[in-house]
Structures are given as C-alpha cells and as structure tokens.
Amino acid sequence: MAGCAVSAAAEDIAIVRDQFAAPPADYSTGPLWVWNDWMTESEIRQTLQDLASQHVMQAFVHPRPGLMTPYLSDRWFEMWAVTLDEAGKLGMNIWIYDENSYPSGFAGGFVPELLPESKGQGLVFEEVAAVPQPLPEDVLAVYTVADGNFTKADASSPLPAGNYILAKRAWAQPSPWFGGKTYVDLLRPGVTEKFLEVTMDAYKDAFGDEFGKRVPGAFTDEPHLVPGGDYHWTPDLPEVFQKRWGYDLMEHLASLQYDLGDWKKVRHDYYSTLNELFVERWAKPYYAYCEQNGLEFTGHYWEHEWPRLTRVPDNMTMAAWQQAPGIDILFNQYAEGVHAQVGNVRAVVELASVANQLGRSRRLCEAYGGGGWDLRFDDMKRIGDWMSALGVSFINQHLTHSTLRGARKGDYPQSFSYHAPWWGSYHVLADYFARLGLAVSHGQQINDVLVLEPTTTAWMYQGPGREHNEQLGEAFQSFVTQLAKDNVEFDIGCEYIMSQWGRVENGKLVVGQRDYSIFVVPRGTESLDDATVRLLDEFVKAGGTVLDFGDVPPAMVDGRASDRVLALATHEGWKKTEGSVLQTRQQSEGPFSITLTGDGRGIVYHMRRSFADGDLVFIVNTSDAAQATAVLRSNMNGVERWDLESGETGIAYPFEALESGGVRASIELPACGSLLLYLPKDAGVATPAPADAPQWAAIPAAGAMAVKRTSPNVLTLDYVDVRVGDEAREAQYYYAAAEFVFQKHGLERNPWDHAVQFNDELITTTFPEGGGFEATYRFTIDGDVPSPLYAVVERTDLYTITCNEKSVTPLPGEWWLDRAFGVVDITDCAVTGDNTLTVRADAFSMYHELERAYLLGDFSLLSTDSGFHIVGPRDLEAGPWDRQGCPLYCAGVAYTQTFTVDATSGSYQVKLPAWLGSVAKVRVNGEDAGIIYRRPSTRDVSSLIRPGENTVEIEVIGTPKNTLGPHHGNPPLGIASPGMFRNGPIPGPPPGAEYSTIGYGLFAPFELQQAG
C-alpha cells in the first residue's frame, strides 16, 4: 500500500512559496458538475469556460436526477470526449464520478441488470406467537425465547405456540432512485468487480490514456451496507464468520437485535466481520484498480451516522483504502453534535488522521451541499476555513448545475455557476481556496497524541433505541471538539488501522508514518480489540504513556470479558486522568501552542504544517458573531504573514523573540476571520507592533446617497390553473400542477425529479397524439403597465404562449437566469387589472416539466392577501429590499455617493457599517476596486482616489433564495432539500407577506475613510 511505513522526506517551504501566487490546477477547488439534462456540446463547453473564467480549474462530472443523456451510452462518452477536449484547451482537470447519482455500486442499474444475484439483502426480526408452516423462504432462523434468553429452534416440523423470534431476510426494493432497479450487496463476491467492469473499464476503454493526467481519479459517493432491512446480510456471511470467530453466527442472530445471550460479543464480531469484508470485497479492489491505472480513489462514505454503524462499520477503515480520502460536510447550519455537518470536528479530524498516518497529501471534502440558495461568500469562507484548519486540503463544491430547469432548481442547492448573481466575483474565493489548498497539502501535520476512537465499543451497542450508544458518541464528540478548540495537536486512532500499520519503535507508538508518545483512552471505552491490547502492552513496557479518561480501564477485549487491560493498567505508564491535562501539556511543553485571550468567545482552530525550514500555520475563527484574540507561541524563530487573497508572501508580522528561545505573537481575528503565518527556523528580525493602529476618519459625503436596482425586479408566479383534456384544477401550486400533468399522461410523478433513468428507458418514452396540457398563470397590475414588461417561461420552444389570449413569441436568443429560460415581451398585451399568461403544449413529451414563470420589469411588488400585485416603481433607500417592493429580487442594488477630497494623502478605504448580501462590489470613479465579502467589511481604495470629486458605488448583490425559494412552510435557512420546494398551500397563492424571503441590502450609508 503506497505511502505507508516510511516517513516522507521533509519538504522545503520554497515548494509552496514559489507556487503560492498562482497555484497549479491540481490545487483548485473542484465542484460536482451536474449533468442533469440532455447534454450538448455547446452546454459542456460553455460550462467549462464559465468555471475557468472564475478560476475553478477542476470538476467532477456528476450524473444526477434530470439527466436525459443515457448514462454510459455512446452519447455519454461522446460528451465526455467534448469535455476532455475543452478541458485540455483550458488546462482543467476532469474527475470521474462513478455512479448515476448515488450511492455508488449499482452502476445506474447495470449491475443488478447484468448480475441479478447482486440484489441487496438485509436482515430483520419479527416476534411471533406461532411459527408459520411451512416455513417461509425468507426466514433464516427461528429462536425460542424463554427465561430471558433464546435458543435456535428446529423449525423443520410444526412448533407449539409460544414466544418466538424470526430472523428474516429482507430484499432491496426497486426504486426510481435506482433507475427502477435495486441497490446491491457490495459484500457479495463479484459485485464490486462487475461494478468496476461496467463503470471504470468503460472510461478506461474510452479515455484510459488520460488516466492520471487530465483525469486524475474517481469519486465514490456513499456506498453502504444497508440495501434492505436493518442489518446487512450476504449469503456467505455465516461461513466467513465461522472461520473468523470459531462459532456459528446462525445460533446467535437474535443477539443483533435483542440484549439476549452474549449480545456484546456477537455484535462486536458481526460488525468486525462486516468491516473486514467491506475492505476486502469493495475498498481494496477499488483501491487496487485505481493504483494500477494511475488514478486517485476519492469520495466518501457516510461518516455522519457515527456511532450508528449499520451503514459503514468504521469510517476510518474505509478512508484508509483511498489514495485521496474524503468526507462530506453538508448544509450551512453550524452545530457540534455527533451527527452534525458544519461544526463536526470529529468527522474532519478522522479524515486528517488517516491522511497523516498513511501519507495522503490530498484530503477531499464535498462541501456546501443543500446549504440553500441563501449561501453567501461569508458562509463559504467560514465553512471552507473551518474544514481546512482541521484537515481538508481539497474543497469539492456541491453543486454546479448544468441547468436549473424543471425540478432541478430544488436539487440540494446552492449552485456554483452562472445562475447565481454573485458568480462573476467567485474567482476571489476560488483563488483564496486554491492557495489554501496548496499550503495545507504540503509539509506534514505531525501530532504527538493519538486519541482512540471507541468504534469497537460502539459496535456492541448497535440496534434500535440504543441510548447508551448515542451517549458514547456525544461524549467522544464533545471530548475531541474541546481538544481542537483548545488547539491541542492530536490524531484520532482507528483500531483497524493500528492493527494493520501499528508497531512500537524507540518507545513510540508508530502508526504508518506517524509516531506518538501519548495514547488516549477516552471515557466510555469498554472494549479494545486484541491487536490493540497487544500493541499497548508493548508500548507501555517501552516507556510510552497511556492516558485513561475513563472511570475504570476497559473490561473487555474483542467484546468479551477480560482482565488483560486491567492488568495492563497497573503499569506506571498507564495513567488514570481527567480534566485538561492535554491542554496544559500543549501550552507548557509542546513546541507550539495557541492560547485564547480576552473574553474567549471566538472559536479558534489551527492547522500546523511542518517543513524542513519552518512551520506554516493556518488559524481561523469559526465564530460568526464574535472576534477572537489569542497568543501564539512557537519554538521557531520568526513570523511572517502570507496573504491568501493577494498571493503575497513574506509580509512582516509583529512578534516577540523569547529569551528562552522561540517566538510569541498576538493574534486578532474578526468573526469568520483567518490568518496564514509562516514561522521560519532561522532567526527572524523581531517586528514591533505599530505604536498606534491607523486612525480612520470619515470624509463627509457630498449629497444624498442614490439607490437603484441593477437588474429588473422579479415576480415569481408559482401558482397556476391547469387543464389536461376535460379535467381542470385551479389555483394549484406549480409542483402539484406538474404532478397532475404527469399523472394524466400515465406517469406516477415527474420522472426527472429525484430519480434516475436506467439506460434510455425514460427519454425514449412516447405518448399518444392529441395529448398535451394548458397552464395559466395569473397576475394583477395596479396602475400603469410597466414598460417594458417581460415574462420568463422555461423551454419556451415547447409551448405556444398567450398573454390575455393574445399570442406572444419568445425573443430570439434571449434568456434569463438559465439558458433554458426564454424571455417573452408582454408589454403590449398586459393590462391594468387582472392578467393571464397561458402556455399550451399540443402534444406531451418527456421534456414537458411544468414549472414556475417569472415577470421582469421596472416595478414594485405590493403584498396582498393572495400573493403580490405589480405596482409602480418606488424609490429605494437604505434598508432591506424585501420591505421596499423587491421581496423576490435576487440580483444587485447599487448605492452611489460622491465625496470631495481636497488633496490626496495617506490611505483610503470604503467601509460598510451594516449590510447583508452575498458580496458587495466596489467601484471608484467608474473603476473596479474589488469586492467586500468578509468582516470587517472594508476595502482599500487608495490607488483610485483623486483630488476633487470622487464617485463611489457599492453594489450589494443578493442570492437566488428570494427568487427561487423555497418560499412556503416557513423553511429554515442554511438548508434546502428537494422536498422543501414541493409544498405550497392549495388553493393559493398565500399572502405575499407569508413568502419566505431575506432582507438583503445596505442598511446605513457607507463611508469613505481616510487615515494618515
């Protein structure tokens, strides 16, 4: 296995410094680029050009619901050829995503189609008073329950009435999510090989010469072991179990579900066996395939369930068998619990620890998925900084949609694409994260403390209603989160990885490329595996230290009662401890420490990468509300700052040289702030802190601030009257109306919504002539008709369109928001009062997805008891737009002021005292001065200020949330799933005031400030 056993040679910092300003494409972020329509050459080339224009130089081709081009077909690979051609012109990397949506393993339905025996199996239990005769085929075993225990019964003949438990096999069920097929049993011999043959060999045949070059690797997404039932079952499990553990699993199956018999032992052994089989039959073959073909195996499993381990028995075990291990961190809701996403320290440190131990320089995280259309630059930076400080080096954005038409706009947004009004400024963040990815991919994160993850203890508490298991998980989560917050430098230990790559050398516990002087047994650990106990026995006898935070040492080995650990705990190297001993040790004895000062309300994490000639340290404040202050201490001999936004290195940073050796420096970080410092080994010149911080004074504005929208206002029409044949429904929420249309044409639902197509089964579907439908959107204009007034309809080419029964035609070549959204001028046919916009399809096809329509123009919206009315435009001012007639507007509003400067001197900055938006563009005297997106909400404009009158414009840009929703049911912010877009009250629309919107805007006049 590459990257193990021998420590990598220490790198010189020059390798990072030389590439820092302009990192190679390998360090760019790389989004999941969603193929979710009938893919065309022009769409592919345009999307890649869009990504490259914003300095996003990698992408993962991700088949996803809505995909009409048949997966793995000749057409599919034709479009891949176009992709690689355009990527070659642009210098981009293109990664394989290995499935038609997810979870990986079924190959878009081809594996169960070609290998029917691959159909996934599970195990369920049923309590009965009478055992049916003859015994149903799905019953694997029958157990008699008596006196608080159970025994396997002979059910070959009728059994008397009593208390029985049936262990039954459950099969994976066909689902639209699996193309009408089923998920598969990844532990059945031959299934992984068939998956690799169908999927990876097809890419190899087409583009194998690009493997390891333009195509760096393959991404797997959430393969798992619960295809059906509550517990995994594979046909030869009893045989494998017998060989591994020496007893018959069939005699003890009921112990998986019930606290009967020797249930802790049985569960431990069952999950240990599954863990080993998952490696041997899925992870290792996939890893070996990639190794042999010059690819990096990346992607992720389902790490957020820990310590619920039915899907994946051990996250870290699986990550060990990836050349570029990965995780995902979804949504935009900070929490620190064991099942959290953003804020889940354990999940990221697991990833970093595997990488440290097994020499993996690239650690991927699928980020932002389902964070909602309301995700802002400040959120993106905060989340990306947090995960990078804890161990991620490759940010994989979720998602870049090819199109938003139909149900696709509700597919776990955000979208990193031209659809977002902030997209033109994204290169700022793309450059920032490319530099950060470069920085944290080099050097070594060398930690001296190894904290055991009590996964094998958690195996014993799987099953329904296991409160003890959740308590174990929360305790461990809290423990490692606090260590990270106290900036203790530690790795997490996986017993499987220790068993494979662990040894004792020179008094240290060595795991792969890392050695540790301290091993931590966290509270709640009840069992250690035999290999772990043998390793720790050798470790403490060689002078190593074990810190046991439990009340008593673990009393079990391999889930069985044992006094081996108790005996080991009598050694002087095994120390019973509690409290903050690791924090105290880091701050007083370690070569590096960060100690919070002040009120301590910030949330500070760091990543330290060691080089031959110094340390590179990335420090973040994850709090979105409080600034953080801290003191950094290091045994290095200087401090310089590296600017992740400009790419500049070698910037003087104030520090104090300590008499005892090393340096100390003060750290100040605003909310969501970050700092990258290089600490050289060679003595640096102490740079004193400035005597006084710059004193900024506001220059009086000359006149009032002018405010105007930079794009037409928007009215989203999400209710329709719909007619199919002789049946009509009124005032329907668009999703219900679309569902009605599909059902009237013989389909159960929109087949492109949260479902995938097997082969070409959907796109080739035809419908009888004379079908079709008609949908009418209603809107009201109070006062004069805005001029011009436009309607936007998705796929205008599929419909005849009328406004107030007057025929209108799409404007040639014009689109809005998405290239599939056509624009129609309805100025001449709209009237004061009630209006209708009608779309008619004379024949129905699989392309017809009835969706929302939109109106665009220079108008305001008035909230009424039934949605909104269009009224005349109003003058805007400082304050939230959604309260000024623009509740559904998502683009920009420009705020302009003039300032008179008698004679230029010193420095000048623009400051936004209070605002909310995705990003704010700054222009001075007509020239672009950059953007503001993070605190302290200032922008240096010194080079653009001139004597006399200066015009400064701030354009605050919103997000797609207000236009695209979800709007109904009081949806939370920071998370958006498909289901949240599907429901609206019927009949409707509801009052406009009940639509969920966000008050973007500039809330007070901005300032031009001068210092010096």
Question: Mind explaining what this structure looks like?
Answer:
The chain is an alpha+beta fold. It is built from 20 helices and 58 strands. The strands form 14 sheets. A 6-stranded parallel sheet has the order 10-8-3-2-1-14. Helix 2 (41-53) runs parallel beside helix 3 (74-90) and helix 11 packs parallel to helix 12. The longest helix is centred in the N-terminal third of the chain and has 30 residues, at 263-292. The chain is globular, with a radius of gyration of 31 Å. The two termini are 60 Å apart.
Ordered list of secondary-structure elements with their pairings:
Blueprint: H1 14-17, E1 32-35, H2 41-53, E2 58-63, H3 74-90, E3 93-97, H4 110-114, E4 121-128, E5 139-146, E6 149-152, E7 164-171, H5 191-198, H6 200-207, E8 217-221, E9 231-232, H7 237-245, H8 263-292, E10 296-300, H9 315-320, E11 326-329, H10 345-358, E12 364-367, H11 377-390, E13 394-397, E14 400-401, H12 427-441, E15 449-452, H13 455-459, H14 467-485, E16 490-493, H15 495-501, E17 502-505, E18 508-511, E19 514-516, E20 518-521, E21 527-528, H16 530-541, E22 545-548, E23 556-557, E24 560-561, H17 564-568, E25 574-576, H18 581-588, E26 592-597, E27 604-611, E28 614-621, E29 628-634, E30 640-642, E31 651-652, E32 656-657, E33 663-669, E34 674-680, E35 697-699, E36 706-709, E37 713-717, E38 719-724, E39 727-733, H19 734-744, E40 773-781, E41 789-794, E42 800-803, E43 806-808, E44 810-816, E45 818-825, E46 833-841, E47 853-857, E48 860-863, E49 868-871, E50 892-901, E51 907-911, E52 915-916, E53 919-924, E54 927-932, E55 938-940, E56 948-957, H20 961-964, E57 1001-1002, E58 1007-1011
Parallel strand pairs: 1-2, 1-14, 2-3, 3-8, 8-10, 11-12, 12-13, 15-16, 15-20, 20-22, 21-23, 22-25
Antiparallel strand pairs: 4-7, 4-9, 5-6, 5-7, 17-18, 18-19, 23-24, 26-29, 27-28, 28-34, 29-33, 30-31, 30-34, 32-33, 35-58, 36-50, 37-47, 38-39, 38-40, 40-46, 41-45, 41-47, 42-43, 42-46, 44-45, 48-49, 50-56, 51-55, 51-58, 52-57, 53-54, 53-56
